[in-house]
Specification:
The protein is of the alpha+beta class and about 160 residues long. Helices cover about 35% and strands about 30% of the residues.
Length: about 160
């Protein structure tokens, strides 16, 4: 059972080591990803969603034992619609068990965020893949509803193509 979730953390286990496990987990399933020199310990990948591609960045935090999953959606909300969009996102979030859709007020972009804390155990490759699938499924299941909140404001991110 412990093997599914990970191995007991040892002293000196670095974020680079966990990051290596993330890349190995994705590679083991043939999942293509990109790395950025600007963003340390971060991989970028894209999956097929129900309505739109699901763009995902997975980061291993340098200071905390956290895997950060961030999916930037291809929608940009106009500032005059923030209240209605936040109301809609809160309704969607109320039905989620893990993570949340947020609206960045500085740029109007919608992001799904889920942070997995691994305090005592380093996540196994199976756990990394299960968390990745969970995040992709959540975004894929809800992006159509989010599009209805922001129908005319698609945004193409050059990082993901």
């Amino acid at each position: 059972m412990i093997e599914m979730f990970g191995r007991k953390k040892t002293v000196g286990r670095s974020s680079e080591s966990v990051y290596s496990d993330v890349t190995k987990a994705l590679t083991s399933k043939g999942i293509k990803f990109n790395e950025s020199d600007a963003e340390k310990n971060t991989v970028y990948t894209t999956f097929e969603g129900d309505d739109f591609p699901v763009k995902l960045a997975i980061t291993v935090d340098d200071e905390l034992p956290v895997l950060c999953f961030n999916s930037l959606l291809d929608f940009q909300a106009p500032p005059n619609s923030y209240k209605e969009i936040l109301d809609g996102l809160n309704l969607i979030n109320s039905n989620l068990h893990f993570g949340a859709f947020i609206l960045d007020p500085e740029n109007g972009r919608v992001v799904f965020r889920y942070h997995f804390l691994f305090a005592e155990y380093v996540p196994s490759k199976d756990m990394i893949l299960a968390l990745t699938k969970m995040v992709v499924d959540i975004v894929g299941e809800n992006d159509g509803d989010i599009k209805k909140l922001i129908p005319e404001h698609r945004f193409n991110d050059p990082m993901f193509g």
